Amino acid sequence: MKKVLLTTTALVFTAGFAAAEGHSAASITISGEAIAGVKYIEDAAQETTQFLELDFGVSGKTVTDGGLEVGASFDLDLNSGGEAAPDDEEVYISGGGITLTLGDVGSADDSVIANIADIGFDGIGIDDTAEFFFDTTTQNIHVKGEFGAITAVATANMDETGTDASEDYGIAVNYDAGTFSVGAGFTNNADEAGLDEDIETFILGGSVTAGGADINLFFHTADADDFAESVSGYGASVSYPMGALTLVASVGATDLDDDDADFGVGASYDLGGGVSFAGGIGQVDNPFADDDGIMVADMGIKMKF
Amino acid sequence: MKKVLLTTTALVFTAGFAAAEGHSAASITISGEAIAGVKYIEDAAQETTQFLELDFGVSGKTVTDGGLEVGASFDLDLNSGGEAAPDDEEVYISGGGITLTLGDVGSADDSVIANIADIGFDGIGIDDTAEFFFDTTTQNIHVKGEFGAITAVATANMDETGTDASEDYGIAVNYDAGTFSVGAGFTNNADEAGLDEDIETFILGGSVTAGGADINLFFHTADADDFAESVSGYGASVSYPMGALTLVASVGATDLDDDDADFGVGASYDLGGGVSFAGGIGQVDNPFADDDGIMVADMGIKMKF
Amino acid sequence: MKKVLLTTTALVFTAGFAAAEGHSAASITISGEAIAGVKYIEDAAQETTQFLELDFGVSGKTVTDGGLEVGASFDLDLNSGGEAAPDDEEVYISGGGITLTLGDVGSADDSVIANIADIGFDGIGIDDTAEFFFDTTTQNIHVKGEFGAITAVATANMDETGTDASEDYGIAVNYDAGTFSVGAGFTNNADEAGLDEDIETFILGGSVTAGGADINLFFHTADADDFAESVSGYGASVSYPMGALTLVASVGATDLDDDDADFGVGASYDLGGGVSFAGGIGQVDNPFADDDGIMVADMGIKMKF
């Protein structure tokens, strides 16, 4: 994402900050991305729809005398589905390869483990069923450690005023060797509606660059005493760049009896200047019904500022 | 509107963007306007009220290698009426004089056709009755073509997830000769509450500079099978600049039997630095009642950043 | 607060503004602060909770040819309590030491009168009971006059569309001699729920620097015909800086029969770069119950960008 940095060094004209400027690295950054295009979902109430999403972010950061990086950020996101509010506030402290983030943080597994690439300008959902138990925990504490090629993340949850924390937690670690990466994680998802027991999920994901293609592989298996048996989801995606054009193919499935594989193919064309045109087509299946899948497709423009 | 451009060229200090900088024209802009003052509406529940409105906008744009300009924008608007949310998200692609915009776009007629200038720092509504069928369509697709002195706009509507599109559409064209302009448009307004049939409106508007004055003229006529007969609205406004002071007079009316003309006079004084002081007074009439009009007035400050 | 000034002079690259640039001082500023930490409230539904708050602000200002400074501002604040919306819109005009502000303005008493410093990174509420009638009026007009060491503020309230103004008003004046300051104010709080008459409050506050410590003193007394007798609240706080470390102690109380004093001690450590670590512990008492107080504490990080 292209970021626009507003440094206090260059831009502060208000009097009285001279003393602070000497050692301050404080800055506020605005960044932005947008997508716009058309989506198709077979048999939906509206089959062909327009979709826009703008994701702008505002972040501030500074550095203490002791060398800790400290910052805060929030998002200004708007989309055709009616999202239009500042949200995702976070505050972080970082030093010595360890970053502690509080607030609307991401999940441990989704922070580091490679997973199935979706297809299209916004995503047609090829990965949704196969990754059903991925990125599902609630958390407001996120600790990340970066140790050379290894990145490890742990997340947990604590009470906020008016809200008892669930006992969700997650741990995940990834090893990135440059030409390949492999990651593993474990999450505990508590207090899910309709379940008496926690869902425990083990996740494996990796990526490898081979023959000019970027290949992602993903597997996870979830279990709870409420389940008749454990449920596994898995899949793979291949991304093949050819100059400005990149072709993508994805497939995902579960071991549920009535679930057919979801699959799709797509392409993205880099127009330069941070702009690309992308689209894809595929088939997704209801994993709980012995039926045929439905066709899904999208096509649109993506841009970064 | 004065715009504050944050160019990535000048301000990006984050490492790793050097390669992208060479051909990128990506930037994020923040702009802002504000008004504040006092409004008077005779016989209103609150006759004399304070009114503020802040209209800030955030927009990003970039240029593809092929020379297409691509961008996205949204507004951060707040006013005394309780408006306070990010909204009006749009994404556009522009090249060769043609601009395609998706999202919360404006109507075709209001995009190009000159109409009756309102009076005062925020507007006392002299033009509201006379322009009742102007700028009333729903649309999320907006195509504008600029061909020398001619600008043409077409708008249409497509489904969004959860929302069936109405069959609204509009087309409008304007010819700007410098000393005068003339525009015409047609809109179809479907699915209006209480009506079985679409409202079809034909609009004419123009402006001319003569004797040091800027004069706007407006006419539109709307018909639907539900109407007993077609309804026309029309009006004119004159703006006369004298140094820092500009005087404005406006009049608008319809051909409804019980409607008296709405009219008003106002003044604006340019204080420099993007700041002006403006006010106006006038009379507006309920078009459906055989009564006298009410007095309306406002006075306040306007600024641009 | 560290401010990031985006001057139009340095940053406007859009064509056509050259003429305006010559005399324009228009600019848009983004500023930001954030806090994050942990709070403890004895016997609360959630005793130990995470709390974050991001307070970002956007403001525009410009200067007229006649030398008046004119501006508008709003806030983008988010916190763990669910606040997440643009709000606090204001427009001001300033010249000759007088500033008129309209919109979501602050109260007269809180604008200038020194009061009891709270304890901790976000505040554990030591001052809440003792200052119960402080900063309680509604207003949308704020006039401030600065005359050397003297600052005076008056606030009042006028109708907005759909909202009848209460008859709240306030006046306050502060004298700042450098080593000490003293302020006084009077507020009228009308239309309070459950009361037939207005609450009239007289406020005194001051600060003095002595022996290396900053001491604040506060007293106010409120009366209404509905009250059996007048109610007074008062307190003091001491802030003692020792290099990067600052110790703070506060005490507050009322003259209600069942109210015990609230008190607390805290510390703040300046980490440099606009970052500090702060915490505190204290006891607060229900003023209407003959009971013991509860323990409150917090600890966290504060930062400015």
Describe the structure.
Chains A, B, C: Residues 7-286 form the Porin domain. Chains A, B, C: Keywords: Signal. Chains A, B, C: Pfam families: Porin_4. Chains A, B, C: This is Porin. Chains A, B, C: InterPro entries: Gram_neg_porin_domain (IPR033900), Porin_dom_sf (IPR023614). The structure is a homotrimer of 305-residue chains. Chain A has 305 residues and is mainly β. Chain A has one domain (9-304): Porin. Chain A is built from three helices and 17 strands. Chain A has a 16-stranded antiparallel barrel with strand order 2-3-4-5-6-7-8-9-10-11-12-13-14-15-16-17. Chain A is globular, with a radius of gyration of 21 Å. The first copy, chain A, starts with a strand and ends with a strand. The model of chain A is unreliable at 1-23 (pLDDT under 50). The interface between A and B is large, with 44 and 48 residues.
Q: Percent range for helical residues of chain A?
A: under 10%
Describe the largest sheet of chain A: 16 strands, antiparallel, barrel
- The helix/strand series of chain A, from N terminus to C terminus, equals EHHEEEEEHEEEEEEEEEEE
Q: In CATH terms, what is the fold-level topology of chain A?
A: Porin
**What's the CATH C level of chain A?**
Mainly Beta
Radius of gyration of chain A, in angstroms, nearest whole number: 21 Å
User: What's the structural domain tally of chain A?
Assistant: 1
Overall mean pLDDT of chain A stands at: 91
Please state roughly what percent of the residues of chain A sit in beta strands, choosing from under 5%, 5-15%, 15-25%, 25-35%, 35-45% or over 45%: over 45%
**Largest Cβ-defined interface:** A-B, 44 and 48 residues
Instruction: Give the count of helical stretches of chain A.
Output: 3
Please mark out the parts of chain A with pLDDT under 50 across 5 or more consecutive residues, or reply none.
Answer: 1-23
Instruction: Give the number of DSSP strands of chain A.
Output: 17
**Spatial sequence of strands, sheet with the most strands of chain A:** 2-3-4-5-6-7-8-9-10-11-12-13-14-15-16-17
Give the CATH architecture of chain A. Beta Barrel
What oligomeric state is this?
A: homotrimer
- Provide the CATH superfamily of chain A: Porin
Indicate the structural class of chain A: mainly beta
Shape field of chain A: globular
Distance between the termini of chain A: 7 Å
Signal peptide (chains A, B, C): 1-20
InterPro entries (chains A, B, C): Gram_neg_porin_domain (IPR033900), Porin_dom_sf (IPR023614)
GO molecular function, one term (chains A, B, C): porin activity
Keywords (chains A, B, C): Signal
